[in-house]
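User: Hey, my collaborator sent me this sequence without any context and asked if I could get a structure. I don't really work with proteins. Can you help?
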Amino acid sequence: MIDTVVIQPGAETGEPAVAGVSWAAVTAGAIASCALTLVVLAFGVGLGLSVVSPWGGAGVSATTFKIGTGLYLVVVAMLSSSIGGYLAGRLRTRWIGVHGDEVYFRDTAHGFIAWALATVIGAALLASPASSLIGGTANGVARGATTTASQAGPMDGYVDTLLRSNAPAAPNAGNAPDSRGELGRLFTSSFRNGSDLKPADREYVSKVVAARTGLSQADADKRVNDVVTQAKSDIDAARKAAAQLAFWLTASLLIGAFCASLAATEGGGLRDGTWSSKVRR
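Assistant: No problem. I've predicted the 3D structure and written it out in structure-token form, which is a compact way to encode the shape of the chain:
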């Protein structure tokens, strides 16, 4: 008579058949991290608005504000990721019969996965309130502005500077709206491609400026050069600010991943009662 041997799950490896990832704990940690991020970011927006002033010599400088914003993003990532990772490690299912090194790895993975899930959820959901806030503010400003102002383009300010007359009685050649639109399109197409005005376009712009403002051709050429230089400087400053923000965001995300993984090991150790022994060693 042949005896039937029933192999229990995990008998070959000596480990119980328990899932290596506690998705409930990971999800809880990720949601808590997202909620805390939203709260702290809202506080940061209020703090930033309180230290920025439209008056010259008041409030913090632009450099200080940019550095402070970057450091604040790092602090937010450290705080929210640590709490989310700790919850993911502390709320996980206990693994019985699993080697201590494997438990440590799983706890670290729980923290990292919780951070990754929180990042994905944040990118998908936390951007919606900010978009709604910005969109609502923009709509309110647009309703309070005139029709011409609401249709202003990014280059209209430079066109205003070009066509500003030094004398109220200066001759205005050509149709004003047509000239403004044409100059705006020239500037937009040129700077969108990252290049300067073409020589022919620059000469034409100078002639239009001279005709519209009553300036001499030499003064019109100088004004065009000054405005082009200012536009390039502003665009370069915006590019550098965007690059710095991207670097700060990258640093905050990497630091957040590390903090979440480390906090999860602490939460898992406290869950199993092994954290105090690790600290003594």
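In plain terms: The CA atoms of residues 155 and 185 lie 8 Å apart. You can pass these tokens on to your collaborator as they are.
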